[in-house]
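Record filed here:
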Amino acid sequence: MSRGPTGYWKQSAVPAGVLAIGLALRLLHLGSWGFEQDELYTLHDSSNLAWSRDGAPGIAARPVYYLVQRVLLEVLPVSEWTLRLLPFFFGVFGIWITMRLAREHFGPTASWVAGLLVAFAPWHIYASQMARYWSLVYLLSGIALLLLHRAFEQGTIRAYLGVLGVFVLGGLTHPTFAFPLVGTVLAMHIVSTGGTLTWQRPTRNALAGLWIPLVLIAFGIAAVLEATGMTRAYSNNESRGILATLRLVPAMVQWLTPEVATAFIISAVLLWVGKQGSDRRWAGTAIMGTLGAGVLLVVASFRTGVYADYGISILPLVFVTIAGLAARLATNIEGAVGSIVPVGGAALMISAMLPGVVSHHSDGSRHDYRSSLRYIQEHGPDELVVGWPIVVQRYYAPDLHMVERWAVETPSPAAGQWFLVSYQRSRILKEPPGLREFLDMRCRREHSTERPRLDYRSYRVEVFWCGKARDEKITG
């Protein structure tokens, strides 16, 4: 049976348009930004497939992305553009999976609303343009949610084995992939398909196809890491403790935007108090998934550093929940007002995210040290450079002599040295006590990089000269 113009528009043209918007926003400036420190670690670890790197984890706890990246490195030259092809691809695919997930639970209206939310999300755009595994974590999280709900409905071993495969891939991409799924699975066992609260034990097929194999695989991986001395792959020495987590939550809300975070909370609550059983079950999984991820982030913070990136696997729950409420309101409100609700809701969310999107494409969402390093190369390449991160200097300006430490007791005015200083808003990264006073009293700012922004973020890089006068060498 052929579809009419309206059916074609809803089923094909609108989803294709949403994907085109998402693709364009991720392709724009894909290779324009300088490599971030972590991206250069990706290049190193993918090239060498090292299980550890200078005392750091290497690929031991997260090998999937690096193994795929290694294949591309064999056929493509290394550049900012080519190293970001994988996250770009996974990012666009992530939009499509989100639309499929929303359509399956809430229908075609929710599909395009959820797709637009992901397409314009600054957090997801950044992840899709960063040579790291985060856009893949998002994608696998969306696939896991899609297959998990299907498996609970179908109840076959084959369906559960599909979930098992995604769970293993996700866990070996980054362990935080599983954080929201813990609460999600628990919710699916206590909220029935009819939306009532009742405990449902795992079925025999679920145990045989998913949970028993998953536990065995998890213990097997842990045993291998323990036997090889690689348990440190799951920890680092920075940003530990509950205070780190308390700082993390506002950072994730800012990445998401406060408006979208608020819309998610309202949407989840309204779907939960609604009358439709399937909506209540989804709301339960979304609420418990996000809360469970928060609890696990707190627990993880006592063993390892925690960062805002760790929350990206929560985002499919967020976007689909908001889109689901918009679709339900469109259905329940009669007349033209009902059809306007999802359009207005999507426009409101996009307007909240738009400053972040514009700022990202104006100034980036990372520190770009290239012009600062070029300035030092042109005006004093033989002098010592003090700053951070040294891995970026070694890639873009290997001829410079740089130390990755702050030494405010030096330099001597008779000698002199450069300071390469990175800011996030008013905070200096890796700032030791007394650095600002030292720079104000004994140094002068010679170079600064920052383009106009519409959001709260700042990725300014400044170059200071400290020591003897260099007026004759300064040209700008």
